[in-house]
User: Fold these one by one.
Assistant:
Number 1:
Amino acid sequence: MQELINLEIPVAQHLQAPIIEIKGLFKAFGKNNPILKGVNLSVHKGEDVVVLGKSGSGKSITIKCIVGLVQADKGEIKVFGQEILDMNTGQLNEIRVRIGFLFQNSALYDSMTVRQNLAFTLQRHAKDLNDEEVEKEIIEVLESVGLAEAIHKMPSELSGGMRKRIALARTLILKPEIILYDEPTTGLDTITSREISELILNIKKKNNTTSIIITHDMACAKLTADRIVILKDGVIHAEGSYTELENSKDEWVRSFFI
């Protein structure tokens, strides 16, 4: 049975339409491998929602459906009030510019320096900027993630934590209103994981971004989440604050917090 806890949402936020709204989302890979079986999720502006679940539960698939990296089989996905599943490629690309996606493996271009990685992204989507403006944006975003000194380095010269920060800088350079984080602290040591988690929190406070954070890292979840939802058997099984779920009567839900 689902344990959907009525989490208190600030009145002003509650009165606003969700910035992301998912209803009845289904996705299967082949007839015998259903992953999502009717996911319902609403996220309001300025909210950081952490999604937990066992491996293979569909956490990453859910956020990939939001930006059209994976095509949903059935359901509704509204972003900024617009139905994603009805969009053509051009319309989808216009929405994607407003959404940042931090990939689990950072996905930097190995043959490009840090500066070139950032410039490529910016020039591709902001073609009206001149060279001086591009350089200014690059320096500012690198300073925001604490890595201005890495501007001329190659990805191979960076530690895992540094690569994650540069990938985040590349996401931030387009000033997205929504950021989707896919396992932002995976493979990082405890100290670096906390630094990335604090950076996520600071980005939200500074830019009022709306985020969905996929993670297995409970320290990251505790630090960043305004609300946590837990996927089980293709649907949202429970949601609430970290403290509420940690003290849940559902033993399976509590197992995430041990």
Number 2:
Amino acid sequence: MSASKFPKMLNYAALKQQFSAESAPEIAQHDTHDQQALSFEQESEKKSQGLTGTRLRSYAFATLTRKEYSKVDLIEKLCLYAADRNEVIALVEELAHENYQSDQRVAEMTVRSQIRQGKGPNRIKMALRNKHLDKSLVSEDLQDIDWYAQAHQLKVKKYGTEVSHDPKTKAKQIRFLQYRGFEMDAIMKAINKKTDDFDK
């Protein structure tokens, strides 16, 4: 018979090299996933062990250097990584006593930030509650602010200086300022007064 009628001999060496190369990325991908899973397990195990003593103190200082926290929020954050809640509470009390942590400071920063964003007293009080801060910490600061002027400034920025007599337009302005957290008396004065009236 003619040799062409028979299949050629398989080159096993070439096939082995070809399939090894094709499966390499898949194997590498599995290895990567295994490494990620192992890393996640190690991290979880590390967290489950819980921080204590010097390690907990170092983590608390590192946390406060990145951001100011209220006492309650700092306790809750540290408890995610600490072994003992009582140790966390004692540490945070110590940090507060040494003024590394300050509810007063956080409250004042919150008020300033909210005012820059054009928020009224109601929204500011809500922001303080969300940070677990007592509004009495900044009660004097809130009383010293001219909320009429703040509301009017916001109204002018959004709708201009013209005093509208259209009920729908007025209602729209009222809703806008209510959403921003202003009281109704400040809102009504803001939308009905001209800019010059605040100088009188």
